[in-house]
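Tutorial sheet, problem 5. The two components below are modelled jointly, 730 residues in total.
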Amino acid sequence: MSLKLTRRNALTGAAALGAASLLPNGFSRPAAAEDTTLGVFGPLPPDPAPPGAAKFAGAEFDAWKAANGADVTYDLVAWPQLHDRMATAFASGSAPWDVMYNCGWVPEFESFLLPFVDDLPKELVDDMPGSSFSTVTWNGKSYGAIFTLSLLTLFYNKEHLDEAGLGAPPKDWDEFLRYTKELTRDGRYGFVSNYGEPAGIGGTASYWMAFLQQAGGTMYAEDGSPAFNTEAGVAALQMMIDLQEAGTDPGSISYVGINDATNVLLSGRASMMMNWPFMWKPAQDPKGSQIVGKLAASVLPAGPAGTASIDGTDAWTIGKSTKDAEKARKLIEFYLDPVIQKKQALDTGWLPIRLSVLNDPDVQAAMPLAKVVLDQAQHPYDSFVTPDYNEISQAVGTEVQKALQGQKTAAEAIAEAESLASAIIARRG
Amino acid sequence: MPSTSFERRRRRAGLLFVAPAAIVLLAILAYPIVESFILSTQSVRLVAGGVTKEWNSFGNYIRLAGDETFRRAVVNTVFFSFGEVALVVSISLAVALLLNHPLGRWGFFRIMLVIPWAIAPVANAVLWKWILNSNYGILNGLLKSLGLIEYYQVWLARPWSAFGFLLFIDVWKSVPFIALLLLAGLQRVPSSLYKAAYMDGAGRWQAFRHVTLPTMRGALAIAVVLQTIWSLRVFEIIFVLTRGGPADATVLMNFLAYRVTFNFLDIGYGAAIANIIFALTFLLAITYVWLMQPRKRRVSS
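Model answer (structure tokens):
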């Protein structure tokens, strides 16, 4: 049969193509009966994005989709928009996702999530730190699986410490203050932080919560009422004030994001900061870092009660409205597969949550801080998430900012923070 | 009152023609306003996989009265709006006068003027975030190289400094539009009035005071009202630069409404704050419409 390029043939062909494209699934392959499309809502890289979104484990991801008869579509937004986008979707009753990234918001969105942790394979659960389920558990049910061990640890510039004759990182609060003072020289600061954003995990309140636990305090009593207006609470804030005076970059109060403060350390203008493991990889990239090979990490300096931290609570959760809860859970299991977890660490810099992968020699060789974070995980790291976490951390963080600016004493700020937190909890009912 | 059947039919036809537009307006304007007001009188919570609403007897408005953060946001907003309007209108008038001068009529100046206004709001905020950075900011570098400061300053660290810079940035962005608006007003002043004034011996200041200003009263009033409305809507620069900090020093009502609604999910309370802003804006809009109405000339008997 010969095909001539005529107007009639062209029109007939175009009509046939148009008709075919109107058929269900258009030109795609015929769908198998068991095919499912899972919608995943999460953060854009370089935040902890999953395979297929971030550039790692692409082949394995394709293989998983084929083996499970599932397609996966990603709806990814910049990290600061995640909470508000999810809140809006839930409020409007149109959250179209099966799997959702959550970060400290599990108690807040509890009624929209499906508890699935009990159905995870035992060998997977046993391979994760026991405490990794604490921030995704509320009212006795576990709604999420943490997929990266993200704890605040101390990052420092080895070269600066060596120049100052300080061989090892600071081990306790006294050393922390002394180091900060001694490292504040030659136009740079001993310590830098991002105190510009009061609320949320990684905001000013979070840093104070880490110091609070180091001082032996806690946020809430057994009955859920605020319990931080104590000697430990005041001591934690006083430590932050003292650190400020010892040589914290004054710009810290204006840095509203972790990246603002990270850039200061990467440019060599500060010597120490409390940061998340993600920092390791960019610090080794000469395109954006002036401290390549000079960065080291250690557990956070100990307060009167020892070292303690907070965690990033990066978790995958399943929406209640999912059409296929089992496949959604299987997708999360895939994200937590040892092979994927290893690639996640090596290619993106986000540490694995699985203990076996954290102890993997390749991971430890590529990311020496894996061992540090594991050590830090041996100590308390409660992020104190509750349904009104954002509001409470906003109130606490704002009071901490006032104290850091000298508007209030540590005791006054903590007393006011407790009063505000009590009012917020009372409104929760 | 329609007196003939033709008038009645004409009126009915008119209503039919207007109806689609009226329905669309009701759907996209009136419904959200009414819904927002209803929300502001309720306790709205996200529970049990949905939104529960419970009438709370205007409790959200009562709560506003005792909310220290809201009071602070109101004071900040009032200061911000007054400062912004005064600065924007006076600077814009000066710019308009310069552009109206024969030397300033070169198109290049107008293009340059429009640039701050043309930059996308978030891009503008990010641009200033870098300019003001306490470690790498060009402002610090410039002032230090000129010997005006000894050490790099943290411009956004102190409440008044942060507030002042937010005001400056918004003024920088707002001046172009208002300047062009006033320039259009200036160009409508008949040159014969100036000639008459000069023939009567008026100097430049007297001509400005007795000819320019009275003739531009309408344009100036519109500029003031529009700028006040816009100053109530400021959001991006606060979100990108300070998040309302340090210590809530730069929280304006609009940002607070966002924070309460979306960060805290206190939807009813957030709606109450948003409605206060709406009421203020609505009053200003009425003023604007009133100013825009053509004036009837007084006829002396």
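Marking note: The two ends of chain A are 78 Å apart (CA to CA). Full credit if you identified this.
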